[in-house]
Amino acid sequence: MSQAKDLRVKDVKELTKMLMDEQKSLEKYMNDVYKGKDKNLVRSSSFRKNIARIKTVINEKKFLEEK
């Protein structure tokens, strides 16, 4: 799990790459859940929270660049 303060150190390119990786991981995990390979739905919420955290930091950085 990434904390926001750790993410703020990285640049937008790194964050975008991390975002894509998290989204792919969530998609793969949800496919496994739908196929019945995994039953732990709590893990999907941690993926979603990480995605939201990364998007928030990206938007903060874009907002600060505009100023």
What features would you describe in this structure?
79% of the residues lie in helices and 0% in strands. With 67 residues, it is mainly α. The protein has one domain (4-66). The protein starts with a helix and ends with a helix. One of its GO terms (cellular component) is ribonucleoprotein complex. It comes from candidate division WWE3 bacterium RBG_19FT_COMBO_34_6. One of its GO terms (biological process) is translation.
| Count of domains | 1
Number of strands: 0
Shape: elongated
User: What is Rg?
Assistant: 14 Å
Query: What is the terminal-to-terminal distance?
Result: 30 Å
| Strand-residue proportion | under 5%
Order of helices and strands: HHH
Question: Which class best fits the helix and strand makeup?
Answer: mainly alpha
User: How would a crystallographer describe the biggest sheet?
Assistant: none
Mean of pLDDT: 93
Helical fraction: over 70%
Task: Quickly count the helices.
Answer: 3
- Residue ranges: pLDDT <50 for 5 or more in a row? none
Pfam family, one: Ribosomal_L29
Family: Belongs to the universal ribosomal protein uL29 family.
Keywords: Ribonucleoprotein, Ribosomal protein
Protein name: Large ribosomal subunit protein uL29
